[in-house]
Amino acid sequence: MKHFRTLVCSTGMALAASAAVAGNPYEPYAGTTLVINFPTTPHYNAVMKILPEFTKETGIMVEVDQLQYLKMRERQTLELTKDVGDYDLIGYVVFSKADYVYADQLENLAKYFMNPKLADPKYDADDLIDGYVANIGIAGGEKGYLPGKTGSLFGLPFGSETSILGYRKDIFEKHGLKVPTTYDELLELACKIPQLEPGMGGLSSRAASGHHASHAFLLHLAPLGGRIFDDDWNPIMNNEAGVAAATALKKIVDCGPEGAQTFGFAEAGAAFLQGKTAMFLDSTQFAGQVNDPAKSAVVGKVGWAMHPAGVRQASQTGGFGIGIPANAQHKEAAFLLMQWLTSKKADKLIALEGGNPSRFSTHEDPDVNAKFSHMKLFGEALRHADPDWRPIIPVWGKINADLGTALSKVLTEDLDIQEALDGVAERTRATMEDAGYYIWQ
Amino acid sequence: MNTSLANRLTPYMFLAPAAAILLVALLYPLGYVFYAGFLNWNPSQRIGQAEFVGLRNYINLFHDESFRESFFVTLRFSAIVVSLEMFIGVGLAFLLDRNIRGMSALRTLFILPMMISPIVVGLMWRYMYHPTVGFFNRTLKSLGFEPMPWLLDGDWAFASVIIADVWQWVPFIFILSLAALQTLPQSVMEAARIDGANGWQSILYIKLPLMMPVLVITFLLRLIDSFKVLEVILVLTNGGPGLSTEVMALRIMRTATEFRELGVAAAMSNILLMMLLLLTVAMFLYNKATEMRAMRLKNIAAEEA
């Protein structure tokens, strides 16, 4: 577990003083030190490099507590229950939205965006990636966790990732293969490649018992037309689409590289980087590594394509957002930092350092594309990011684990798919009943 | 106050500070966990905000298939590893209880696995079990055998974590049994030799019974520890495939962090604690009974003489 504190502090004070002309919105907060909590992901590592720029521009100093993301979540859970918190701004993982908002631990951002002294009129919120604002930022609308007429904003997407297909250009060219755009093509190729290239797996997927297997299943569930719940919270992961998604997962793992049954995200990525599979279907977060010769044996050989469509085009929503804890000590300055980090200017700087941009315009930006040629395609993929990819409700952790365990049994012990998913549906119903979701029925 | 009362109270007064510390340091956390077992408690709440649900957590656990499975996985795991470790550890102690040149260096080597941090042990074995680049499968392949699905199949994964645990903890039993062996009174051994006992007989009828008190404690320590094993399995398999290696400690951890149900996690730890308490009490009762029997036999022998 990485845990390190970095003090990002520069000549801020002095510069801020000199910049203190009329109309500097940062002036009242110059000299404040913000304590923020970020995960250690490639995106946030890129953010660390541009934070000194913020201090230089505003005179607000920033101290960062960067933690591995699961560790970060534990720490935040403790921090947010205190009367006076130590963190002024937190990066939170998408499924924390349900817990934090429900426990009234995140600031509603309306009052900050309404404040003329704080809100930048040139912020251009429309440019933020829709699916992610819906997924990470807004709560209180449809189903409680999605936008809608009753919803409001609690955070901003920061480190948006979605699923994308990576493929080996050399292998595809060698055998005259077409890059798959539909699920039928994808599944056919996944099992054809091991025949064409003995010793090579078709597609790298995670499959380890628990969270990983469940995640891999969800990757296929949305495009194949499935959902975990219907509109009345009835579990429907065991319907036709659910069975199709689990069947697809099993096929992919069976035709995958050796040992694929126990792969987590890291192992699945490593198999692709070591040239043991011809395709990779998972988060865009992975893309930064393929052309790094220290980690990858496939430098320059990887092409990217959209997550293939089933009955609909629907890619993953995951990743992180940033929000202000209700017990923060410097909320207004934290808002300024949050607004600055997600502004067009900072978004571009972060992208150039290798982060995941939060805005459509950054994905289109010529400078960014000159450095990372896949960025335009990733922007396109993000337009299809499905905000309802997984239910963001407090009991999801438990359902997720159960689903992942049942699927692992399907993958390793040949448990019947329908039987496994029926079991999950039955247990999910009991969990939901306990949590009070059927009280109105 | 009269002097006799003061005299009688003195020892208690001296004990009081220790008792107070014990109360705070031991009973308070225990009471806390016991109480938490009756709560519907989410980590985003303070304990005071949690809803009191009586025995609901325990009743739910009783009906929870996954919990039952992990309960039996733990029982199976402990029974197998502790028996194997006792057998191998005590056996090794008998083998190495002799004066050969370099024996002390060898003994130190033997206890090395115990000193390695469990996370590292887990990682090390995980790489050795790796399906393609792992030591075991590469060796098997180079010898012309089929590779094994070490961590890929439920039963194999269970066997794999047992092997890793046995590797790590045999030295613990070994070192304690060896210490016990070396403190056995030489006079008894000599008497046995003079009476014509051969090697096996002296082990079975003299050494093992004399080592028994130490072995019982060793067994108990290992048993308690094996019920709480977490790190090695966490790193090796994280409970998978399916739930085949999900021991209770891992289930408790996942319940608290992944499912965010602190009350249920507390209820599970209470069940684990009860189980261990029962085992410990049973062990001590058995020990007491054998001691009593030995005492009785001794008395009878003394009377007969």
Describe the structure.
The complex is a heterodimer of chains A (441) and B (305). Chain A is α/β, with parallel strands linked by helices and 441 residues long. Chain A has 2 domains: 3-161 and 318-383, D-Maltodextrin-Binding Protein, domain 2; 163-316 and 395-434, Periplasmic binding protein-like II (D-Maltodextrin-Binding Protein, domain 2, 3-Layer(aba) Sandwich), CATH 3.40.190.10. Helices cover 42% and strands 13% of the residues of chain A. Chain A is built from 18 helices and 12 strands. In chain A, the strands form 3 sheets. In chain A, strands 1-3-2-4-12-7 form a 6-stranded mixed sheet. In chain A, helix 2 links the parallel strand 2 and strand 3. Chain A is globular, with a radius of gyration of 22 Å. Chain A starts with a strand and ends in a 7-residue tail after the last helix. Residues 1-21 of chain A have low confidence and may be disordered. Chain B has one domain: MetI-like (MetI-like fold, Orthogonal Bundle). The mean pLDDT of chain B is 89. By secondary structure, chain B is mainly alpha-helical. Chain B is flat. A two-stranded antiparallel ribbon of chain B has the order 1-2. Chain B is built from 13 helices and 2 strands, in the order αββαααααααααααα. Chain B has helices at residues 3-36, 56-63, 65-96, 103-110, 112-115, 118-128, 135-142, 154-182, 186-194, 199-227, 231-236, 248-257, 262-304; strands spanning 39-40, 51-52. The longest helix of chain B has 43 residues, at 262-304. In chain B, helix 8 crosses helix 10.
Précis, in short:
Chain A has 441 residues and is α/β, with parallel strands linked by helices.
Following the backbone from N to C, one meets helices and strands of chain A in this order, namely EHEHEHEHHHEEEEHHEHHHEEEHHHHHHH
In percent terms, what proportion of residues of chain B is strand?
A: under 5%
Name the chain pair with the biggest interface and residue counts per chain: A-B, 38 and 28 residues
What is the fold-level CATH name, i.e. the topology of the largest domain in chain A? D-Maltodextrin-Binding Protein, domain 2
| Biggest beta-sheet profile of chain A | 6 strands, mixed
